[in-house]
Amino acid sequence: MIQYYRELTRLEMEQIDRERTIVLIPLGALEQHGNQAPLGTDGLIADTMPRYLKEELLAADPDFPMLIFPTIPIGLSTEHKNFCGSVTLKPDTYYHMLYDIGASLAHHGFKKIAFLVCHGGNTPIVQVLSRELRSDFGLYAFILSSGAFSHPDVKATVSPGNIWDFHGGEMETSMVMAIDPSLVKLDTAEAGVPAAFVNNKSLLPYGSVSISWMGEDWKTVEGKPIGIGGDPSGATAEKGEIILRTSARALVQGLLEIRDFSS
Prior knowledge:
Layout: E1 2-4, H1 10-14, E2 22-27, H2 41-60, E3 66-68, H3 91-107, E4 112-117, H4 123-137, E5 140-145, H5 152-155, H6 170-179, E6 193-194, E7 203-204, E8 209-210, E9 218-219, H7 237-260
Parallel strand pairs: 1-3, 2-3, 2-4, 4-5, 7-8
Antiparallel strand pairs: 6-9
Helix pairs in contact: 2-6, 2-7, 3-4, 6-7
């Protein structure tokens, strides 16, 4: 049965099969997403994705054992800190906060948690943390990506020629439009490219040869730091619905296997 963690009473929580139940912890961020998308883009996605997951999981297993934890709204956003409105935790602060949540859940007998990562900058901390929680408490900490951005159905939503679509670009802006179109201001949108990397074949902001990029590396064609990748002007709510739904469906098989996992 899929329920929201904060809606249960203590007595109801005591009746949960805590050895079998997965605690899904959505991880958001509060950071710039260009001129057109809200600072809370990742948090909005983190709030919304569990609803899509719930719908897809219930179709696969009506009794799927999961508790949806409140979204953690602030994360590790060092790369965006110089853009107005962005808020970041220090790496050790973020690590210890998530560690303490895991320790509390383990103390009450939970054996499986799943971090739903809705901001890529959170991933390195979660990767280290997941092993430490397993080592220290025997708590299985799984990592889920909230965006199936390499899925063919998702890639097909990107406008032709928009080759650098990335943080704050067409895909993420579309996701917000599917959630609440009033929060997106497409008339102020500007495109961004990784200016220092556009002519490179190997050294890129991501991939097998990379550097930890900063938001300032992504600039408009005029050279102004814009902090986003790609051109968000083609974003639509319809595209966002495809991305959210496809991303949820892509996680179902993994969650079913997490349900059955034992080492």
